[in-house]
Design brief:
243 residues; 32% helix; 11 helices; alpha/beta; binds S-adenosylmethionine; single chain
């Protein structure tokens, strides 16, 4: 696909903040036909070092809560300041997605790029841990690294060049994610599909010189990419039934 909006985020300085296959391009594809209302308050769940939050604020005008477990909110705030984002348009929050502490029905939408697979494999996660903080009717958009077909019982040796069994257990196919999402009583599944983004977002990541990207090169250079894809999921929180 043509990445009209994310092309300008492809500078070495900005890309040095990515933590996996280019999350800005993934986000642009994920939101191609989004239904998030103008001026929405959006949870960027697993926002990493804030690039996807910057993209949501600058390109779509949303107010963004950049919620992440591993990154430093003060460092992310300094990044947003340096990028000229008005204070309050992006709020960096140290947050564990499995124990969020916002007011009920706080968010107008959730966007989650390359992180849901860390915490969302529990079939009860959506109903118990995320939906309570999302308004009825709100959209939830998720992009995750996936497998074209689950092959955990006979993992291709190429994949084991870069990742452990435990890490590969975070990566599954559309059938697996469909089953997980179908367990949520409070959300309607609008679509679960393979994304177009794959080779290009991997190439942007593997160009980085950090230890994780360097380690990931082994699997992809050995041809492991043919087993992998990215999966886009669009959900809508159902309206609560009175009584
Ligand atoms: C591969 S990184 C991707 C970050 C970012 N979306 C990007 O692509 O640059 C995965 C992210 O998931 C976040 N994460 C993992 N478990 C989490 C949890 N329980 N709650 C919140 N964030 C979590 C980590 O903090 C990390 O930033």
């Amino acid at each position: 696909m043509k990445y009209t909006l994310s092309e300008k985020y492809n500078t070495p300085a900005l890309q040095s903040r990515i933590m996996g296959p280019n999350p800005v391009k993934l986000e642009e594809e994920l939101l191609r036909e989004h239904q998030i209302p103008a001026g929405a308050v959006v949870c960027d769940l697993g926002s990493g070092m804030g690039l996807t939050s910057l993209f949501l604020a600058k390109e779509y005008g949303f107010t963004v809560y950049a919620c992440d477990l591993w990154s430093d909110p003060a460092e992310n705030q300094a990044f947003f300041d340096a990028m000229g984002v008005p204070r309050g348009q992006i709020v960096p929050v140290k947050a564990d997605a499995t124990s969020l502490s916002f007011e009920k029905d706080f968010f107008d939408a959730v966007v989650c790029v390359d992180s849901y697979n860390y915490f969302g494999r529990d079939p009860d996660y959506l109903d118990d841990k995320l939906l309570p903080f999302v308004k009825s009717g709100a959209m939830i958009y998720i992009a995750i690294p996936g497998m074209k077909r689950d092959c955990h019982s006979a993992l291709p040796p190429e994949l084991l060049l870069s990742w452990t069994l435990e890490q590969l257990d975070y990566i599954h196919d559309i059938a697996y994610w469909t089953k997980i999402m179908e367990c949520a009583k409070g959300a309607e599944i609008l679509s679960i599909k393979e994304m177009e983004s794959n080779e290009e977002v991997w190439a942007d990541w593997l160009r980085q010189e950090n230890e994780y990207a360097i380690s990931d090169r082994k699997a992809i250079e050995a041809g492991g990419g043919k087993y992998l894809n990215f999966i886009a999921i669009a959900l809508r929180k159902k309206s609560s039934v009175a009584g």
